[in-house]
Amino acid sequence: MGSYLPCAATSLHLLLLLASSEAAAAAAAASASLSAGGHRRYHSIFNFGDSFADTGNKPVAYAWYPLPSNVMRPPYGETFFGHPTGRSSDGRLILDLIAAGLGLPFVPPYLAHGGSFGGGANFAVAGATALDAGFFHDRDIPGAGSKFPLNTSLDVQLAWFESLMPSLCGTAQGFREDVLTVCCGGGGPYNFNESVACGGAAATACEDPSASLYFDGAHLTEAGYRHVADGWLSSINSCLCAQPHTMKLRRA
């Protein structure tokens, strides 16, 4: 199913970008590298969200039951595509414009795409919620049934992504079964005990801190901090090398 992607990079970018307040910007970029000109090159985007980022999943999901999907009627899609595509806009979305700016093709909607997802996937579904739809239905919130007829919450989208991971990851290299056990602690689960602080007489320390992510249960090892610093530095260097540009709204 296409070329394999390094899972570690995918997972790290996903974790960082999910912290964004804008669901449409929750894109996970994998296989990033620096080109000769110093610009960061992204090879794929994995996106999660709702109607602000859905590029075609809603019509497929709604057709299963079936439910009406107004985004497949004109004038949706008239500006750029010339016909409805499942996007809640007259044309392209933020995700589409970001992909174009990075020189990438449109991110294929997960439910409507039958090919390879080596270049990324869009899991966003219009009407999706952060909490499961059952949260709103169980509390008899007025209008919940019509507003959230399907459970396409973030948990569901993440489950789709998890099911896709085996086809994207060519190797388990770089992964460990246990990343929570601390290097220096007082025994017990994950070698952490609040009553036995690192540095105390009863505490024990691992032989190789560089093989651990956490040092004392609250703080990282130098190796852990190095991963964070390297990520920040590469982003800073990429921003400094980028040329200033402006964006204009226009008819394409």
From TrEMBL:
Residues 1-23 form the signal peptide. Pfam families: Lipase_GDSL. One of its GO terms (molecular function) is hydrolase activity, acting on ester bonds. The keyword Membrane does not apply. Belongs to the 'GDSL' lipolytic enzyme family. Gene3D superfamilies: SGNH hydrolase. This is Uncharacterized protein. Keywords: Glycoprotein, Signal. PANTHER family: OS01G0223000 PROTEIN, ZINC FINGER FYVE DOMAIN CONTAINING PROTEIN. The keyword Glycoprotein applies. SUPFAM superfamilies: SGNH hydrolase. It comes from Oryza sativa subsp. indica (Rice).
